[in-house]
Structures are given as C-alpha cells and as structure tokens.
Amino acid sequence: MTQRLSISAIIFFVVMILLGVYFAFAAVQGPSGILRRVQLQAETQDLIAQRDRLQAEVDRMRNLTRRLSDDFLDLDLLDERARDVLGLVRADEVIIR
Prior knowledge:
It holds the Pfam family DivIC. It comes from Paracoccus aminovorans. Keywords: Cell cycle, Cell division, Coiled coil, Membrane, Transmembrane, Transmembrane helix. This is Cell division protein FtsB. By secondary structure, the protein is mostly helical. The longest helix has 34 residues. The protein has one domain. The radius of gyration is 34 Å and the shape is rod-shaped.
C-alpha cells in the first residue's frame, strides 16, 4: 500500500526547503553574515594598524614640541629646524650645490 503525498504537503516541503536555502544564504552572504564578519575583522585590523601609526606620529610630534618648549629647549633641534625652515647656515660653513 503506497501512500502519496498530497499537494499541500508537497508545497509545504518546497516552501520549507526554500526558506532553509534563503536563511543559509543570508547566514553566509547577508549584512550580518559570515563573510561580512570576516570583512569587518580585516577592516578592524587595518584601522588598528593605522591608529597605531598615527599614535606613533602624535607621540613623535609631542616629543618635538616638548623639546622646543620654554621648559625644555633642545638647541640642536632648534638649530636643525632653523636650518630646514629658514634656510640658515653658520658663517663658518661652506655650502656645496
């Protein structure tokens, strides 16, 4: 005795399979899916590296600013900056171009 599935049962199974495929696709490709998570982690790592580079630059600039402040004056740095920015040279130096 073979029983055949009714049309409503077949439609039910087809709809359930389609919903399962849709949710599986959304879990992988959707806006909060696995691939998006991997992409966000890679972007996060890039931004952390960029932040660290910028923090190092800020620390370097703070050090230079402190070395040229009124409280702590680094004469070698002042001499270097005057030469670079103003194009100054000492009287006993020879410039070769």
